[in-house]
Specification:
- The longest helix has 19 residues.
- Helix content is 33%, strand content 15%.
- By secondary structure, it is α/β, with parallel strands linked by helices.
- Strand 6 and strand 7 form a beta hairpin.
- A 6-stranded mixed beta sheet has the order 3-7-6-9-5-14, sandwiched between helices. A two-stranded antiparallel sheet has the order 1-2. Strands 4-8 form a two-stranded antiparallel ribbon.
């Protein structure tokens, strides 16, 4: 017997405490239009797209609504521009405008570190360094960076939102290597790393993280750890492409795949690298196959 989806969703809303306008702004009816919108939301979030807002779909939409409400409490109103910034020049990024937030937005809520080198002249950008932040969210990461007096240009949050904390013309202190910092752009991808935080992700994001097994860094196999959400990987690819097109960084990966690379550490490398490529002490982002990601972009 077929489920009456409109009836199911009305009963679910009463039990779980959600509203139709969570899926369609201003919508108040439990009708076919709502069912279609729920299906679209489920497909976007890699859930079973059946149009029924059950507990799993509710956790996802509730996490999104709570995140929006938190930013509204801060009085933040984002702009609608899908660009990132190099001095006063906008750099186009192929990513939804509601998931691109920059320091130029009115009421930008993220703490901005003072630990950064400001350049008066347009700087040369040679490379891009990818990190994981060992934080639960990009807001937490930004707070840690500001407190420690270090910096990074971008964060990628759990839902794939790209946050630009600093101008591309700034030399951020992110690589632990002055030669690299001077000519590079950096991103911190939200990921607490330790599987013990899966409960937090299920409650606050609506789903657990994938687990990475057998990853290499410094040519050693790492213990299992939480991996990036698919939407974070897609956001990273969009950011790679924008930086390639806007700053001229070639779509090249280091010659040494899973360990420190002397050319990267010297600051001479031109292309995209993991943090462990330019620092012998680091393991991020072990398991991230930059060469394969770049092939998908080309």
């Amino acid at each position: 017997m077929a489920i009456d989806k409109e009836f199911y969703n009305e009963a679910s809303a009463s039990k779980l405490g959600w509203e139709p306008d969570w899926f369609i702004p201003g919508h108040k009816l439990f009708d076919y239009k709502l069912t279609k919108a729920i299906k679209a939301f489920q497909a976007e979030n890699r859930l079973t797209a059946d149009g029924l807002c059950g507990p799993s779909t509710f956790r996802h939409i509730n996490a999104k609504i709570e995140s929006q409400q938190e930013l509204e409490k801060l009085g933040w109103v984002t702009d609608t521009s899908d660009v990132i910034w190099w001095r006063d020049t906008p750099v186009k990024i192929d990513w939804p405008s509601d998931k691109v937030h920059t320091f130029k937005d009115s009421g930008f809520p993220y703490p901005v570190s003072t630990g950064v080198t400001k350049n008066s002249r347009k700087r040369t950008i040679k490379s891009f360094v990818t990190h994981w932040d060992v934080c639960l969210s990009s807001m937490s990461c930004a707070k840690v960076l500001a407190k420690r007096g270090i910096s990074v240009h971008f964060c990628i949050d759990n839902d794939g939102t790209i946050i630009q904390l600093h101008d591309l013309n700034d030399s951020c202190w992110h690589a632990g290597n002055r030669n690299v910092n001077k000519y590079s752009v950096g991103v911190e991808i939200a990921n607490a790393y330790y599987p013990k935080y899966q409960g937090w992700y299920k409650k606050n994001v609506g789903k657990e993280r994938p687990i990475m097994s057998g990853a290499l860094a410094q040519n050693k196999v790492l213990d299992d750890f939480t991996w990036f959400y698919p939407e974070q990987i897609e956001a990273l690819k969009a950011l790679y492409k924008a930086i390639h097109e806007g700053c001229g960084i070639p779509l090249e990966a280091p010659n040494t795949k899973w360990a420190y690379d002397s050319e990267c550490g010297s600051g001479k490398f031109r292309g995209f690298m993991n943090h462990f490529h330019c620092s012998k002490r680091k393991i991020d982002c072990g398991g991230l196959d930059i060469e394969s990601l770049l092939e998908e972009i080309k």
